[in-house]
């Protein structure tokens, strides 16, 4: 058992001077009790060392305590000394230090302002990093749009990988929350995001991440961000595609999914092939035949449903524990007021004696309230693993979508090959009926054969990309399964230990009050007997 609370007499002097008239709710009284409890209450059970991987904010509506805790646990290099699985993964990262700090308001370039003299502003953050084994620290200024650019580039370069999702823009929250609070939460979220990228086995050593963390100057925007120019470019190319001048995309372009308006004809073809596959009842030329992958994919979908339910229940538990702490604090406030009344307005000596016990109950209730708040912090710390892995499912969906997109590209090219071959057969048959052959048809056959060779090259390139994504999926599923076992074991051990420790602390406090109150009851009984 943990040490019990000290005798109530040690706190009587402080209890007498509480500013009760100004205390209209529990929050104000709790702050009054802080000096008293910090000096008289037993030490809190030692909290496990913080993992270098701070948790992601929940995708659900968070109670205030959850949001506060999630935003107030930034990562640090010193945290890597912890023995948690996340710390072990951080220790193998190429980066020993990553921090996002010092948010500053900057003005957009004058050219981007539509109204003279009223340039829009944005928030930039100081991103500081150090590679393992290198004592130098690199510091660069990055804005949120730069993080979006980084995420887009990683999505293109690491298809099939479970790329950690970047923080959302949260436009609504930026309008509802206080500006400083919103900036602080975004800063913490961006820092957690960079640490997740650094800990990823493939992304952590990538040039994309290294350039983002170390390259001086502003990050250039990728060409894919300009939707209007993409659509105009696609519209300009469409007639040439329809006329056969751009019938086949270059092999290096085939491996990437069709984007925006860059290749409208390819989009139309892939859409048509998808509809034939899904609705036409025609067996596609290539189907997903990896039964092991299909079984794992279904299990991941089932797992996500269970994880979502557990995540919501964790939110409910956090809210319930918060309400319990607030209610216990309100009870302590009520007994404080009762103590004041019986002390100042007492008509009999017995009322003053009862006031002493009311003080003890009030002190124990406020201590229990603070313990509930501390327990809630620990609950958030451990159960937030549920929220984090639920967020990872977004990356899983994206990786599986990359695989489906690559397969659809292969199917589309194979369908094009079959169509081209059919046209050649028809042209040759028609040409054979003409004495000496039809030169126009023969020339067209020659052109189609050239197109087939180019399409074959593109198909081979697309097949290699599909196989590469399949292998990435396999590696990532294995890694996720291993990390999930480690993370959930740590979560369960930490959650159970914290619940037991804080419950024991609360019991100790109330047992002390019970012993003191029972002693008072025995004395009252003896006085009545005599």
UniProtKB/TrEMBL annotation:
Residues 50-59, 70-86 have a biased composition (Low complexity). GO terms for molecular function: phosphatidylinositol binding. It comes from Aegilops tauschii subsp. strangulata (Goatgrass). Signal peptide: none annotated. GO terms for cellular component: endosome; membrane. InterPro entries: AH/BAR_dom_sf, PX_dom, PX_dom_sf, SNX2A/B, Vps5_C. This is PX domain-containing protein. Gene3D superfamilies: Arfaptin homology (AH) domain/BAR domain, Phox-like domain. Residues 103-220 form the PX domain. Residues 34-86 are annotated as: Disordered. Residues 286-320 form a coiled coil. The keyword Coiled coil applies. Keywords: Coiled coil.
């Amino acid at each position: 058992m943990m040490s019990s609370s000290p005798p109530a007499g040690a706190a009587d002097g402080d209890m007498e001077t509480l500013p009760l008239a100004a205390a209209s709710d529990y929050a104000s009284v709790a702050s009054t009790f802080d000096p008293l409890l910090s000096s008289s209450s037993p030490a809190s059970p030692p909290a496990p060392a913080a993992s270098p991987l701070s948790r992601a904010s929940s995708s659900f509506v968070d109670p205030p305590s959850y949001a506060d805790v999630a935003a107030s646990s930034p990562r640090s290099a010193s945290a890597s000394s912890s023995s948690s699985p996340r710390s072990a993964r951080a220790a193998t990262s190429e980066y020993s230090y990553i921090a996002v700090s010092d948010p500053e308001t900057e003005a957009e370039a004058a050219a981007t302002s539509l109204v003279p003299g009223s340039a829009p502003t944005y928030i930039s953050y100081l991103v500081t990093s150090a590679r393992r084994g290198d004592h130098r620290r690199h510091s660069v200024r990055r804005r949120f749009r730069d993080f979006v650019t980084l995420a887009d580039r990683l999505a293109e370069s690491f298809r099939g990988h479970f790329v950690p999702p970047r923080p959302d823009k949260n436009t609504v929250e930026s309008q509802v929350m206080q500006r400083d609070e919103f900036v602080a939460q975004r800063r913490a979220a961006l820092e957690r995001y960079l640490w997740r990228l650094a800990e990823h086995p493939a992304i952590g050593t990538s040039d994309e991440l290294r350039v983002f963390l170390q390259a001086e100057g502003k990050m250039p925007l990728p060409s894919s961000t300009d939707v209007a120019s993409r659509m105009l470019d696609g519209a300009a190319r469409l007639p040439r595609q329809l006329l056969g001048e751009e019938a086949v995309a270059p092999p290096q372009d085939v491996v990437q999914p069709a984007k925006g308006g860059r290749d409208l004809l390819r989009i139309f073809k892939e859409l048509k092939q998808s509809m034939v596959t899904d609705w036409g009842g025609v067996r596609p030329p290539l189907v997903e035949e990896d039964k092991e992958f299909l079984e794992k994919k279904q299990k991941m979908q089932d797992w996500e449903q269970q994880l979502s339910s557990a995540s919501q229940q964790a939110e409910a538990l956090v809210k319930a524990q918060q309400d319990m702490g607030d209610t216990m604090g309100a009870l302590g406030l009520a007994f404080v007021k009762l103590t004041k009344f019986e002390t100042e307005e007492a008509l009999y000596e017995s009322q003053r004696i009862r006031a002493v016990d009311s003080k003890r109950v009030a002190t124990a209730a406020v201590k229990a309230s603070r313990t509930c708040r501390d327990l809630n912090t620990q609950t958030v710390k451990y159960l937030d693993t549920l929220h984090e892995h639920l967020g990872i499912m977004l990356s899983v969906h994206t990786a599986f979508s990359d695989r489906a997109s690559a397969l659809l590209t292969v199917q589309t090219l194979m369908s094009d090959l079959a169509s081209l071959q059919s046209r050649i057969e028809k042209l040759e048959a028609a040409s054979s009926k003409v004495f000496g052959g039809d030169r126009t048809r023969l020339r067209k056959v020659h052109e189609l054969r050239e197109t087939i060779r180019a399409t074959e090259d593109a198909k081979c390139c697309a097949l290699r990309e599909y196989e590469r994504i399949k292998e990435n999926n396999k590696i990532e599923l294995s890694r996720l399964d291993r990390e999930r076992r480690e993370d959930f074991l740590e979560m369960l051990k930490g959650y159970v230990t914290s619940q037991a420790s804080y419950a024991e602390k609360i019991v100790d406090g109330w047992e002390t009050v019970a012993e003191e109150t029972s002693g008072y009851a025995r004395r009252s009984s003896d006085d009545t007997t005599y």
